[in-house]
Design a protein that fits this description.
single chain, 2 domains, 8 helices, minor pseudopilin epsh fold, Helix Hairpins, mainly alpha, binds manganese (II) ion, 3-stranded antiparallel β-sheet
Length: 198
């Protein structure tokens, strides 16, 4: 997976490669989610780094080692960097290798999508649903609470949907399942597939 390296002891704000995602995520939601929520996590993490003993480590290494408030902010920076990176206004389809992996481990791409959506919809409270590769090379779907990321469980994370209310409330109100079902329209699969190799 893609990691982030601090420059002069500070992590940069992940940039967006788009400014709206059509009818799936509104410009207003993107503005709050990226410009306010993610910015606060980046700013908080950068304030906590000096003197923490974790200065100079990559973001993934910080997430693996940090605790408490520092873990929450570092985890949310990593989670959102991966989340925003995997979408596009011109999404490209899934390649044959990814399709074969999902068919092998879930039976079909449709069965994978159904389980992923169901695990996102039923996660109680705030968190993330993830597709990862485990140490044996198999695909697994996990529900992670709050700022958790599968790297802390030794997994290689590939794809994530944010189920915190701030990700969808302006556009979908309480209809989390509808939001999750719509997100497939904007997943840029080659970005997800590159994470398999990292
Ligand atoms: Mn979020």
């Amino acid at each position: 997976m893609k990691d982030m390296i601090p420059v002069d002891g500070q992590f940069a704000m992940p940039t967006l490669g788009y400014d709206n995602l059509a009818d799936v995520i509104s410009k207003e939601t993107l503005g709050f989610h990226h410009g306010k929520h993610l910015k606060a996590y980046v700013d908080n993490l950068n304030k906590m780094l000096p003197g923490s003993g974790l200065e100079g480590l990559s973001l993934v290494e910080v997430v693996k080692r940090a605790e408490g408030g520092m873990f929450n902010n570092a985890g949310q920076v990593l989670n959102h960097a991966m989340y925003f990176e995997q979408f596009s206004t011109t999404p490209r389809p899934m390649g044959d290798k990814m399709k074969a992996l999902l068919e092998r481990d879930f039976g079909s791409v449709e069965a994978f999508r159904k389980e992923f959506e169901q695990k996102g919809a039923t996660l109680f409270g705030s968190g993330w649903v993830w597709l990862s590769i485990d140490k044996e090379g198999r695909c697994v779907i996990t529900q992670q609470r709050n700022a958790e990321n599968p790297v802390t469980m030794g997994l290689n994370p590939l794809l994530t949907f944010d189920v915190w209310e701030h990700a969808y409330y302006l556009d979908y109100q309480n209809r989390r399942a509808d939001h999750l079902a719509a997100l497939w329209k904007i997943v840029d699969w080659p970005v997800v597939e590159e994470r398999v190799l990292c």
